[in-house]
Amino acid sequence: MTEPLLSVRDLQKHYPIKKGWLNRQVGAARAVDGISFDIQEGETLGIVGESGCGKSTAATSIVRLEEPTAGEVIFNGSGRGGASRNADGTHPNDVTRFDRRELKRFRRDVQMIFQDPSSSFDPRMPIGDTVAEMLIVHGMNDKHRRRAIVEDLLERVGLSGSDYDRYPHEFSGGQKQRIALARALVLNPSLIVADEPVSALDVSVKAEILGLIRDLQAEFDLSLLFISHDMSVIREICDRVAVMYLGEIVEIGDTETVFADPQHPYTEALLSAIPVPDPRSRTEQIELTGTVPSPTNPPSGCRFHTRCHRVIQPDGTDIDQESWRGLLNLRDSIAADEVDIEQIRELAQASEPEVTVETQIRSEFGIASLADSVLDSAVTEAIEQLAADRQAVAAETLAEVVWTPCEKREPPETTHSDGHVSRCLLYEHDQPETVAADD
Fold this sequence. Notes:
elongated
């Protein structure tokens, strides 16, 4: 395979958390926590995930609008400086190490499109001057030539050359995004990083902009890193897709392969949320329950295990998956002291007919009856302790018998087919038969 145009290796972006009079660092928000991927020339790679997963931070870190905490971003590895590494092990084309002069040259080749183009336009400057400003920064002093280039680009993105002298407030949202495309293309880049470029547009305009991006990509021989939370948009425009969750890539592969045969539970949940325009379709949407973790304190093991609908049961446990998810949710809620026992008492007493506190809690967490007598007894005991205002004892009671291998081991990287990789313990072929609960 040819050398990729862009190679990202173990990229991290952590935001320090500081407290106290001395402003000491007490932790970090791990927005991006060790992601790796390649983009070939002419390829479109999509990064998809829900809000807060770190995909936009990854984009801004790659182009160094934000300084990465660690990792490499190697651009055009076979170009300037050659593919070999320096004596100290660094790569001559590692963007994270570029000085100001090298960074300026890099940004001729890599441009970015933002979700809200209005925020990057000067309302007092004609849009033509805004687009032409990039040419001035990079040394083009011929005013007439700049105007000719910009007018040509405005026409290529579906506007008129005469729009050069109009101001941002005179354009609709879709037209502003077309101007943003023209600005990104004005330096004839090799790679465009598009961060949610159509999420603020209505459906018809979104389709037009996506079609325009595809046409311009073919015309200018562009590579594209496309950030989105919308799986249907990713399928429309991307050759490959990387699924991101809580700062990590959990699955990556050819778009059609991932959509047809997802190999990570989080990918399954995202795909199930895509609306199907067929009233006869029986596709069931996967509802994710459980605790949404914070990047300041990500869970151990697989980061998705606190919400996973296919979370693994320990050996010797065999109950239906919905009840198992409910048990883990109850355990975590009690441990975090999030079960309001007084409110539950009130709800139980207001029920017709009146129910017990235990029945109310079991109903709320979907564990009304468990076939496993040990687990069922533990739930009863934990609820009794909780009702007696002994939250710590209740938490310990459940923790002794309710646990999952997913919280104890980092998921391995599993290759399912050429280029299709996921990270999930479901595919750990050499998983030990037993795992001690107190490991």
